[in-house]
Design brief:
Length: about 80
């Protein structure tokens, strides 16, 4: 094996490594974008969950108020 063969083999190996690095870089950028989208979705869902909890709390307070008024009406009629 002469030096030209060695150089050619090294060039092929470098090309393969470059291709693998390019593929990894592309996958990395795809994952970054997916992560960004997932974080955005998570923040949106957390916000929606908070709003729902607030609405549930308001409804619960109203129901408790109605129950208390009904109880007080019941006590006044006894």
């Amino acid at each position: 094996m002469d030096s030209n063969d060695t150089i050619n083999d090294l060039k092929k190996e470098l090309d393969l490594i470059e291709n693998k690095i390019e593929i990894l870089s592309q996958k990395y950028h795809i994952l970054l974008e997916e992560n960004k989208l997932l974080k955005t979705r998570q923040e949106k869902e957390a916000s929606e969950k908070y709003k729902i909890q607030q609405k549930n709390q308001k409804v619960q307070n109203k129901v408790e108020g109605i129950i208390n008024r009904l109880r007080s009406l019941d006590y006044t009629h006894q």
